[in-house]
Amino acid sequence: MDGTATGTGIGQPVRRREDLRLLTGKGRYSDDLNLPDQAYAVMLRSPHGHALIRAIDTAAASATSGVLAVLTTKDVAQDRLNPLPHIANRHPADIAIQNKDGSPIARPQNTAIVGPEVCHVGEIVAVVVATTLAAAKDAAEQIDIDYQALPAVTHALTAATSQAPPARRGGANIILDGEIGDVAATEAAFAAAAHVVHLDTWVQRVAGVPMEPRAAIGVYDPEADKYTLYAGAGGAVSPRRDLAMVLGVPPEQVRMVMHDVGGNFGTRGSFNVEFALVVWAAKRLGRPVKWTCERHEAFMCDYQARDLAVSAELAVDADGNFLAMRGSNLVNQGAYAIAFGSLNKGVEIMSSIYHVPAVHFRARAALTNTVPTRPYRSSGRPEVMFVMERLIDLAAQQTGIDRIALRRRNLVPESAMPYTNPFGMIYDSGKYHECMERVLELADWNGFPARQAEARARGKCRGIGVANYVDTATGAPREKAEVTVLPEGIVEVVIGTVSQGQGHETSFAQLMTEFLGVPLDTIRLVTGDTDRVSVGGGAHSGRALRLGSVVMLNASNEVIDKGMRIAGHLLEAAVADMEFAAGEFRVKGTDRSIGIFDVAHAAAERTDLPEDLRGKLGAESDKTDNLAAFPYGCHVCEVEIDPDTGMIEIARYTAVDDVGRAVNPMIVHGQVHGGIVQGVGQVLGEQVVYEPGSGQILTGSFLDYAMPRAVMFPFFTTEISEVPTPNHPLGIRPGGEGGTTPALGVAVNAIVDALSEFGVTHIEMPVTAERVWRAIRGKAPS
Fold it and tell me: CA-CA distance, 516 to 559, in Å (whole number)?
């Protein structure tokens, strides 16, 4: 049966197969799993942002009823657990940032249980394991720790000063200080510029807050000498590798199993210390050990994101042509250098999709006494797209050139593709002008003055903003797929990448329907278990469908080739006289045919076939792709502001995003919607706040951390552009991060436009009602 003919192949808006199961409580998330005789772990976390442990007394805790073990850093040392690896693999397509003085990048080690120095609130200083969760909690309260509080530093700009206290003893706060670009050409361009616009800004820190809090169960089998971790993560293969490194055993002795995962966005992308602790405790105690994170705890232990301080300038000539960019990007790594992806990926596309002949940027990373940060949805790109789009609006104001005309003048033309940006990134293809013109038409940009006048008549300020963007998608370059056609009518696809809500069960099945012409419900996806999956990366940097589709296509083509030879024997025809379509092998020009599942049955049962054609009808593809992908698009946002209260309403939001080729447009639209909410949510309220000096987290629950709500948003107008990339056999670009990437810039541009009548030229995020109210009245921001 041909998947395309039945409306389930590539390009069809098929409803997600997994939704009925997930929405009716039939999913299997990490906390849903319980094993016989399991014990429960509670992590005792530091209440200090920076401190020394002078003494720790666990006697009372150990004597508490039901307690099986109280573990501290001494036990970690005794069992010789290794520090967490935090492997910072750089994709070959991404730029490399190194210390300009040639020194190695300092990366403090992250031990499973810390001591004597703790470097952020929430670090684990002891683990209590008991027969019940209540007993473990009661015992944790009995642990007596004598802390010596030390000064803490929480902001990267503060950490970079000579007067700042050290984030940890014996080390500098700045661990990476590099430069990229041509300083001489950039300085010359600025010297010749008719206009120079400047922006100092801070893209605030956010928490990922996925719907499902983390949970894990560790198991040790003494007979097989094998460790098993059940947990939701960004992938299965990478945590297995990292856990083996912490335990000091070969990867073959470790199994990672994950089922349904309720959200990721990057916060689950690096190895978590709790994963190692439950497995280690399970071996020590001889029984499974379970840990489930509570929401208030997650604010202290889940990896956080963004937190980039930028000082940037744009040089423009008298005609409005961009001449150069320069500046400094400083990322707050938190207490440990988990990954540098947000810094690298941001700097390498600072110029966005505009032609900027010369650039020079300084890129730095600072340690602070805060939860570590790591790549988060569209890592590093929303921050720098925000900077570029704000600079352009400021340039339009300073030069008197219309902001749309200024963008039109400087967008990279289609004729320049492939285009090498000034940082060395090669954009594969794109119709940037066409995309912007389309979104302006959809958003009725020309009709805005009438809507603005109507709003003024109601006493409201109305503003409109536009933002172009490009996203650089790389991620782990290797992926593998094993495709097997089973005689019972199932096509099994074993693949390394995993889903955390992206709809793989549907979109991957659509690909296989397209490739093999079999019904959608015959596709069985196998992921997330390293006993089945040995190779592959996670769902990060828009890599899952982009790389997964290639290996599934390659393996499917091999299946068809083998099936053609088997069918030729069965139908007594030469392979050259055979064709494959709609799931059937057919002798050309005749009605003689055989279905793919019948071929699989013959391969398994027939003994008269050549030896190389007997057995399973299957193939595998293991491929490493070192090319980056560059999704792009343009968004328009329209806001209304009540000048009496400062309240902001998102009145209209329009987006056009190019994904090369959409496998399932419905899923792409849904991902764009969610991405917009994540980006605009940061603009309007999301912020992790630490108390300077102590490092105390002040946004430790949803009472203090302002999550976006559905009532805050209108129905979005979204459209998919499909300009196939030449770097992919199916023309696919990623589509999951496009909604977020331009959202910061477009929303703030709209807000500033609404406030321009009060002389406001810029406003920092989060743009709260109080901040707007103060800006209108010319008061200092709070």
Answer: 9
Structural tokens at position 48: 């200090």
Q: CB-based burial of residue 780 (10 Å sphere; 0-12 exposed, 13-18 middle, 19+ buried)?
A: exposed
DSSP string covering 644-660, please?
TT--EEEEEEEEEEE-S
Rounded CA gap, 359 and 327, in Å? 9
Mind giving me the DSSP string for 710-727?
Answer: GGG----EEEEE----TT
618: helix, coil or strand? strand
Tokens 């709070």 label which residue? 782
Q: Which of 309, 354, 304, 357 is nearest to 334 (CA)?
A: 304
Residue 89 pLDDT:
64
Q: In the prediction, which pLDDT does 538 show?
A: 84
- Residues in CB range of 782: below 8 A, 6 or more apart: 770, 771, 774
CB 650 within 8 A of CB 712: yes
Residue 780 has pLDDT above 90, yes or no: no
Tokens 């699989």 correspond to what residue?
Answer: 600
- The rounded percent of the chain whose pLDDT value lies above 90 is 92
- DSSP string covering 571-591: HT--GGGEEEETTEEEETTSS
| pLDDT attached to residue 6 | 54
Distance CA 580, CA 418 (A): 35
Question: Does residue 203 carry a pLDDT above 60?
Answer: yes
- Report residue 448 as tokens: 């805005």
Q: Which of 459, 533, 523 is nearest to 496 (CA)?
A: 533
pLDDT average, residue stretch 18-33: 94
Residue 67 CA to residue 59 CA, distance in Å, equals 11
Contacts of 405 (CB under 8 A, 6+ apart): 320
Q: For residues 89 and 476, is the Cβ–Cβ distance under 8 A? A: yes
What gap in Å lies between CA 495 and CA 465, rounded to an integer?
A: 42
- 463 in Cβ contact with 755 (< 8 Å): yes
Bridging pattern class, strands 124-130 and 226-231: unpaired
Interatomic CA distance for residues 233 and 297, integer angstroms:
17
**How far apart are the C-alpha atoms of 674 and 266, rounded to whole Å?**
15
d(CA 10, CA 14): 10
Instruction: Give the global pTM.
Output: 0.96
Longest dimension (CA), the chain: 88
